[in-house]
Design a protein that fits this description.
alpha/beta
Length: 284
């Protein structure tokens, strides 16, 4: 089964008078969705007590939860002190994820800064190897780090870079942000065949279980020559991409990804559109 849900609280959540993440599991369930992503974008500020309370509510409603690590993480940073800081952000995120009862932690893999791209990629991969060892030394288990494709051309996180990085260690899964991929590649995901070519490349490039159970971010994204500019809603008719061919390809190949909608303020409503289409496809 493909699990589908929103990232963060949308406009409707606030308009209905909700204020606390403790209210989110029931809200997501009422919307007929399956999962939710909690972002630590600016840092991990959840106490253990609060995380356990939130996790208990998600477990009660049967809604799966994932987290997004802070945006400050950069596995390609040449400064060892900054790498240690990135490791700390990751261990804090994984500790909170464990308390929340989830298994997936999404992270932006890195930026070259001023380094040559090949040097930055090599450094990123070396630090991903180091972090996998650190993960086990810290006693973590049964959780995955989902390496995200990025939307700006100068960021690390192309499809090829993510495939190579995911193969470094069993703890890593791909996080394909199809809006990012479309923006980075200037509207590439315009037809089903392009989605299918991408999925075939992924299946050929990594273990089947990793490809099959990939993490997914989806939204329509405005882009320019450098890639991503801003997230949009499903009402956009200019930039795309469309979610229907993505679902068609996932179903065709028997894949069961975890899909998180990141639309700008309408993520729950737009996630419902994805879920309703998926239900129609598998009913035929």
């Amino acid at each position: 089964m493909i699990k589908i849900g929103p990232s963060g609280s949308d406009n409707e959540f606030t308009l209905k008078g909700h204020k606390s993440t403790l209210e989110m599991p029931a809200y997501v369930k009422e919307a007929g969705l399956d999962c939710f992503e909690y972002s630590f974008g600016q840092g991990v500020r959840l106490t253990e007590k609060t995380a356990l309370q939130i996790g208990a509510e998600f477990a009660k409603e049967g809604i799966e939860i994932s987290v997004h690590a802070p945006y400050f993480v950069n596995f390609a940073n040449p400064d060892e002190e900054k790498i240690i800081g990135s490791f700390k952000y990751m261990t804090d995120s994984l500790s909170a994820l464990s308390n929340l009862g989830g298994q997936r932690c999404v992270v932006h893999p890195g930026s070259p800064l001023k380094a040559d791209r090949s040097v930055a990629v090599s450094r990123m991969n070396d630090n991903l190897k180091r972090f996998a060892e650190h993960y086990r030394e810290m006693g973590f288990e049964n959780m995955f780090v989902c390496l995200e494709t990025m939307g700006k051309v100068n960021q690390l996180g192309s499809i090829d870079e993510i495939i190579d990085a995911v193969n470094i260690d069993p703890i890593y899964l791909p996080c394909y942000d199809f809006g990012h991929i479309n923006a980075r590649e200037q509207g590439y995901l315009s037809i089903k065949e392009h989605y299918e070519a991408l999925i075939k490349k992924t299946i050929d490039g990594m273990e089947w279980e990793k490809a099959k159970n990939m993490h997914v971010h989806f939204s329509k994204i405005q882009y320019g020559k450098s890639g991503e500019i801003r997230h949009l809603t499903f009402e956009d008719e200019i930039y795309g991409p469309d979610f229907e061919p993505m679902i068609d390809v996932f179903v065709k190949y028997g894949m069961t990804p975890y899909i998180v909608c990141e639309s700008a303020g309408t993520q729950t409503k737009d996630a419902q559109q994805i879920k309703n289409y998926y239900k129609r496809v598998i009913s035929f």
